[in-house]
């Protein structure tokens, strides 16, 4: 009887949690009602991201800033890449890149930056040539030279979308909180890595991805909390991108840490050897992990 009661409680818990992707799917009377909240749900929806607790400077016994690269070719990182075609699935599901770009354009994310130190802001006008490019074909130039109006079919437009994102760079801070007695992580910034519109228009397969823009993550938490990532274990209970990133449900490779040499990257002092670069990244990661265990070793 106890087992049945426990099972029933679990079912009730799942039933009370409605997924954004499948919202109202069982009670909809027409396809238009799928994904729309009822008035009661809207009134009761006061969900906010869990606020970061205040950390006093005296409580930080040790800290280290690390920069990591999240490769979207890795299986564990795929929830950050898909879906690519939101028109087919509906507007309720977007990739991480689409969440960032959409909210930058509509003003929900007010500031983007040129580097991970957040020294210089960038505007949408500055991002324009990287995100989109228009090329006039030879037939179009022939029309212009003949004094004719340019036919739109002779303009080739290249736009950057979610499928062009190869990875993300993130900046985070590991610190040991002596008041709580544990090692913690705080995500500070995130940056999509893409092949820009010019390289894409030239079909340059050897083009390397570049940093598109940096977002100061604490400013974007509300946006990230509203956007849902697909849960491969249970589609009725998706997780937010804020939860996914803060709980580090991804795999990142450290490519830089704060150091006395101007925060130089690993590839600057371990050159032309990918294996040794990866081992150096693992060494830095282990030094962070081991600090907590060293604190409790006598």
Helix-strand layout with pairing:
Blueprint: H1 2-16, H2 39-44, E1 60-71, H3 86-89, H4 96-105, E2 112-113, E3 121-122, H5 124-131, E4 132-136, H6 138-145, E5 155-159, E6 165-177, E7 182-194, H7 197-201, E8 210-211, E9 215-216, H8 221-226, E10 228-229, E11 239-240, H9 241-246, E12 253-257, H10 266-269, H11 274-295
Antiparallel strand pairs: 1-6, 1-12, 2-3, 4-5, 6-7, 7-8, 7-9, 10-11
**In whole angstroms, how far apart are the ends?**
48 Å
| Strand residues, percent | 15-25%
- The domain count comes to 2
Uncertain spans, ≥5 residues at pLDDT below 50? 1-21
> Structural class, please?
alpha+beta
Tell me the quaternary state. single chain
Summarize the helix and strand pattern as letters. HHEHHEEHEHEEEHEEHEEHEHH
Supply the number of helical segments.
11
Question: What is the percent of helical residues?
Answer: 25-40%
Q: Give the mean pLDDT.
A: 81
Please state the CA-atom Rg, rounded to the nearest Å.
Answer: 23 Å
Envelope shape = globular
| Biggest beta-sheet profile | 6 strands, antiparallel
* DSSP strand count: 12
Describe the 3D structure:
Strands 1, 6, 7, 8, 9 and 12 form a six-stranded antiparallel beta sheet that branches. The chain has a two-stranded antiparallel ribbon with strand order 2-3. It is globular and about 80 Å long. Residues 1-21 have low confidence and may be disordered. The protein has eleven helices and twelve strands. With 298 residues, it is an alpha+beta fold. It has two domains: 19-48, no CATH class; 59-295, no CATH class. The N and C termini lie far apart (48 Å). It comes from Mesonia hippocampi. Keywords: Signal. This is Gliding motility associated protein GldN. InterPro entries: Gliding_motility_assoc_GldN. Residues 1-21 form the signal peptide.
């Amino acid at each position: 009887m106890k087992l049945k009661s426990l099972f029933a409680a679990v079912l009730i818990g799942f039933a009370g949690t409605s997924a954004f992707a499948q919202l109202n799917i069982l009670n909809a009377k027409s396809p238009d009602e799928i994904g729309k909240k009822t008035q009661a749900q809207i009134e009761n929806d006061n969900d906010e991201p869990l606020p970061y607790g205040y950390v006093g400077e005296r409580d930080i016994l040790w800290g280290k800033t690390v920069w990591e690269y999240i490769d979207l070719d890795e299986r564990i990182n795929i929830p950050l890449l898909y879906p690519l075609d939101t028109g087919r699935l509906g507007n309720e599901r977007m990739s991480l890149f689409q969440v960032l770009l959409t909210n930058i354009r509509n003003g929900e994310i007010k500031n983007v930056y040129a580097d991970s130190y957040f020294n210089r802001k960038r505007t949408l006008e500055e991002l324009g040539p990287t995100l989109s490019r228009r090329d006039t074909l030879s037939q179009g130039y022939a029309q212009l030279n003949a004094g004719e109006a340019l036919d739109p079919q002779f303009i080739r437009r290249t736009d950057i979308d979610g499928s062009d994102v190869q990875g993300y760079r993130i900046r985070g801070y590991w610190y040991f909180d002596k008041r709580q007695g544990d090692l913690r992580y705080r995500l500070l910034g995130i940056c999509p890595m893409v092949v820009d519109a010019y390289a894409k228009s030239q079909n340059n397969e050897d083009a390397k991805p570049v940093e598109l823009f940096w977002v100061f993550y604490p400013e974007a938490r509300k946006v990230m909390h509203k956007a849902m990532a697909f849960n491969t274990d249970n589609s009725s209970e998706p997780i937010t991108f804020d939860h996914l990133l803060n709980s580090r449900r991804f795999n990142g490779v450290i490519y830089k840490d704060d150091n006395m040499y101007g925060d130089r990257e690993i590839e600057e002092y371990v050159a032309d050897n990918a294996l040794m670069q990866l081992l150096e990244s693992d060494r830095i990661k282990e030094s962070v992990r081991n600090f907590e265990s060293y604190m409790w070793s006598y």
